[in-house]
Structure formats: C-alpha cells, structure tokens
Design a protein that fits this description.
The protein contains four helices and three strands. With 158 residues, it is mainly α. It has one domain (9-150). The protein has a three-stranded antiparallel sheet. The radius of gyration is 17 Å and the shape is globular.
Length: 158
C-alpha cells in the first residue's frame, strides 16, 4: 500500500469507509473530469482504445458490428460511474454500489493512463523519474493502481 499505515478504503460492515483528505478528493474530481472529456472523443482515438476492447480482431465486419452494439453501453456505463463517483467523492461512507462505481471509474482511468504509457501488462514495473516528461502520468498510474487494490481488498474483506 505504498507505505500507508491504513488503507484509504476500508470495509465497515455493509459500508466502506473512505479516508482521503480534501486534496486527494480534489485530484479524483479532476481526473474524473479528464476521463469525461476523453469519453467524449472518438472511440478510435488511441488514448481510449483499451476502454473499447476488440472482440474480433481478425474479422473487420464482425468487429464493426460488435462495436456498434457495445460502444454506447460501455460509454454510458462509464459515464454513469463517473457521475456516481462525483456525487460521492466527498462522502466518508460508501455503499456497495458506490464502491463499484469507484472501482469502474478508477479502472477506466488506469486503462487510459496505461495506454498513454504503452503499458501492456499489469505486472509491468514502472520506475519513477521526476525528470521524465511522463512523470505525472507514471505517478498517477501508480496512485490509481494502489487505490484500485484497496477498493478490491475492501470488497473482499469480511
């Protein structure tokens, strides 16, 4: 958990306690706004290609049909998750549906950042170099990975 004493997200019976300061909550809000903007662009944009996975890479006709059937549903689901997180970003307690929205939104953000960093494997180790032009993106990718791990751990906790 990157040296944290306590997780940011912790199960409390049927709810989930969120321990984030105002600055961290503002960061989440900012990232959600950036994700919303990215969802408004063409699904063909390389930055969002992992948000719309290919099902029939070897058959263009089937792939086009699949995309036409699933694109709107995937996009509306992601936008609904963004809305739910924006509504609950200042909450101290989340219910299971809100936490699920957090998980989907954080995962979508990680997919976009991973694509921008050309990461193809979740086990890929990133070295942080503050002088790298991608330093902010690398740091955000690591942060969101840790947050996603905490969300999953909280969901699995008894």
């Amino acid at each position: 958990m990157f040296g944290r004493e306590r997780p940011r997200i912790e199960r409390r019976q049927n709810r989930f306690l969120v321990r984030m300061d105002a600055q961290e909550r503002d960061l989440i809000r900012q990232l959600l706004g950036e994700l919303r903007e990215l969802l408004a662009i063409s699904p063909e944009d390389p930055r969002v290609r992992r948000l719309y996975p290919s099902a029939y890479a070897d058959d263009a006709e089937l792939e086009d049909e699949y995309r036409s059937l699933t694109r709107d549903e995937l996009q509306s689901g992601r936008l609904a998750s963004i809305d739910a997180v924006e509504e609950s970003v200042d909450a101290e307690l989340l219910d299971i549906e809100q936490l699920g929205a957090w998980m989907q939104a954080v995962n979508s953000l990680r997919l976009v950042l991973g694509t921008m960093l050309d990461i193809t494997d979740d086990d890929h180790e990133l070295a942080f170099d503050p002088n790298d032009p991608n330093a902010r993106t690398v740091a955000l990718y690591g942060y969101l990975g840790g947050l996603l791990d905490e969300i999953v751990d909280a969901q699995l906790a008894d």
